[in-house]
């Protein structure tokens, strides 16, 4: 629901931003026309030295004179200035200025509202690093990003060796290596803390299950015969998780150790700003 609300807020902000940009856009077009007319007037004045000279139809000055008549005439100037060309037109410069000022202030107000909506529609991207696996295209679904939380010691062991399958205890998706779709949701699911691993996984053959189908894979490796991965579609999509049977499916990963569990932060003085390391060895 929060994601849908944020998306709706962004959509409303975009519409307000688009409407608010119409007035400045049209004003820019009008200013461009005015500058074009000024430039043509200058060219006309430069090319009108011989006013009494008889010119042929193919003379370039004839074309210039026509351009002067079309673009430098009073009706054209009135059109660019958004004035009426009717002979009975009564100029009202103050009213015209007021209307233009109101439109300009209105567009500025819409842009400010759009900026406020953009700023307040914060979407927690950590809860949805990417779409659900089942919603990806076949080309995108070959690999997937998952998050695994463990102790700092286990993370160091993984860095020097590899992931190990969970083969004991109660395993909701069966035996294998577990990953969550969301960083935030790993805190409530993981049995250990101290380090976070973000990994890219080759999914292979995937068995998607819902809550009512968990009994088919719980505490078992029977699904290993036909599938490489079990993906659990939770009722709340940011709580999805999946289990892979083979650590070789984990292609690459990044390990982040919590500061409280990393003694080297204080040891090397990395908890404060500095220009160079003390021992010059890292």
TrEMBL record:
Keywords: Membrane, Transmembrane, Transmembrane helix. This is PARP catalytic domain-containing protein. It comes from the Eukaryota. It comes from Adineta steineri. The chain crosses the membrane at residues 22-43, 101-120. SUPFAM superfamilies: ADP-ribosylation.
């Amino acid at each position: 629901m929060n994601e849908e609300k944020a998306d709706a807020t962004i959509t409303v902000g975009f519409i307000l931003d688009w409407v608010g940009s119409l007035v400045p856009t049209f004003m820019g077009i009008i200013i461009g026309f005015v500058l074009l007319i000024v430039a043509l007037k200058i060219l006309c004045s430069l090319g009108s030295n011989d006013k009494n000279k008889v010119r042929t139809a193919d003379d370039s000055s004839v074309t210039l004179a026509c351009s002067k008549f079309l673009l430098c005439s009073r009706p054209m100037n009135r059109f660019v200035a958004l004035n009426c060309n009717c002979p009975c037109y009564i100029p009202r410069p103050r009213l015209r200025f007021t209307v233009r000022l109101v439109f300009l202030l209105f567009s500025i107000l819409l842009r400010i509202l759009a900026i406020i909506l953009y700023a307040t529609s914060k979407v927690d991207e950590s809860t949805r690093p990417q779409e659900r696996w089942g919603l990806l295209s076949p080309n995108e679904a070959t690999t997937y990003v998952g998050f695994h939380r463990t102790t700092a010691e286990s993370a160091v062991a993984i860095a020097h060796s590899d992931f190990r399958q969970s083969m004991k205890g109660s395993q909701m998706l069966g035996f294998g290596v577990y990953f969550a779709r969301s960083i935030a949701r790993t805190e409530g699911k993981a049995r250990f803390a101290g380090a976070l691993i973000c990994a890219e996984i080759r999914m292979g053959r995937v068995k998607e299950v819902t809550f009512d189908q968990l009994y088919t894979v719980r505490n078992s490796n029977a699904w290993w015969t036909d599938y490489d991965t079990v993906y659990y579609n939770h009722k709340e999509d940011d709580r999805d998780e999946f289990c892979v049977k083979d650590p070789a499916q984990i292609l690459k990963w990044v390990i982040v150790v919590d500061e409280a569990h990393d003694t080297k932060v204080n040891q090397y003085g990395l908890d404060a700003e500095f220009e160079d390391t003390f021992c010059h060895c890292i």
